[in-house]
């Protein structure tokens, strides 16, 4: 059986579970369940803290897992485990922040104390950038550390920025890391069932990012219309009963659907329809 680690709580848990459900796997119904088996798909799911998932996968105890890129890099197992697929969920930035007005660039952190829950990630970054600062490792709520006097600045996950604002802080310097949920696997291993899992998750990603567009267009405009909707491989073009017209079917990015529809309409396309893709294999 393929042994898969899934975040048991926190920012990634719900999104990862619904993605796996969409990919056709059984997921736990009760948050107290620690492990469940999906016998039809030959997969076992282990619900673990996202921070620990990199360790289990890195040591080869579990085959693959979903965790944050930041947590994976922080665990410093990147020789033993590798990122296989970004999942487009749980996006955040890992950034420096300080009291409003105190810092404008990371270079000013020389000789300062920086509080963080991601000390591995931060130390590597400081070393790469040649910044000589003291890292103060805290478990969470690092925004309070400056006010309480154990640090001068922090390095933390920022999503909306609301937590920083409430603490009277602001980000400074370039983002240290752009993170999102990722599938990680043991470096160089290809356990039974991994290909299917990857293909299914990629199918979910595509189904979430694309819609199916159908429209009718006059014969002489088919080429121009297809340039606007090239699809992933190539659009399907079918003759209509009225031989002057063709029906075109193509996948388009959800985010540009309306602008493409406007352009098609201006070109002369009609009966432009959008439908959702529930699942796919590309
Ligand atoms: N708003 C957010 N707050 C915290 N983490 C977020 C947010 N958005 C995305 N993430 C991502 O979620 C992961 C952290 O997950 P989680 O919050 O479960 O961990 P944790 O902070 O160690 O746990 P906990 O807060 O329960 O002690 C990281 O990969 C982080 O980038
Ligand atoms: O930019 P925002 O949308 O405000 O989100 C970022 C905040 O959320 C996380 O904290 P979490 O809730 O995980 O608590 P923790 O600090 O105790 O881990 C993170 O550590 C930041 O504090
Ligand atoms: Mg947290």
From TrEMBL:
Which coarse location class applies to the principal site listed for this UniProt protein? cytoplasm
Q: Which cofactor does it need?
A: Mg(2+)
Q: Which reaction does it catalyse?
A: 1-(5-phospho-beta-D-ribosyl)-ATP + diphosphate = 5-phospho-alpha-D-ribose 1-diphosphate + ATP
Every copy of the Histidine biosynthesis HisG C-terminal domain together lies at 207-278
Q: Lineage in the entry?
A: Bacteria, Bacillati, Actinomycetota, Actinomycetes, Micrococcales
Q: How is its activity regulated?
A: Feedback inhibited by histidine.
Give the pathway: Amino-acid biosynthesis; L-histidine biosynthesis; L-histidine from 5-phospho-alpha-D-ribose 1-diphosphate: step 1/9
Q: What class of enzyme is it?
A: transferase
| Compartment list | Cytoplasm
What organism, scientifically named, is this protein from?
Answer: Paeniglutamicibacter cryotolerans
Q: Which InterPro entries match?
A: ATP-PRT_HisG_long, ATP_PRibTrfase_cat, ATP_PRibTrfase_CS, ATP_PRibTrfase_HisG, HisG_C, N-reg_PII-like_a/b, N-reg_PII/ATP_PRibTrfase_C
Q: What is this protein called?
A: ATP phosphoribosyltransferase
Q: Does the keyword ATP-binding apply?
A: yes
Q: Where is the ATP phosphoribosyltransferase catalytic domain?
A: 49-202
Stated EC number for the protein is 2.4.2.17
The gene name reads: hisG
The family classification in the record reads: Belongs to the ATP phosphoribosyltransferase family. Long subfamily.
Q: What does this protein do?
A: Catalyzes the condensation of ATP and 5-phosphoribose 1-diphosphate to form N'-(5'-phosphoribosyl)-ATP (PR-ATP). Has a crucial role in the pathway because the rate of histidine biosynthesis seems to be controlled primarily by regulation of HisG enzymatic activity.
This protein's GO cellular component annotations are:
cytoplasm
GO molecular function list: ATP binding; ATP phosphoribosyltransferase activity; magnesium ion binding
- Give the UniProt keywords, A-Z: Amino-acid biosynthesis, ATP-binding, Cytoplasm, Glycosyltransferase, Histidine biosynthesis, Magnesium, Metal-binding, Nucleotide-binding, Transferase
**Alphabetical list of Pfam families matching this protein:** HisG, HisG_C
Q: Which GO terms describe its biological process?
A: L-histidine biosynthetic process
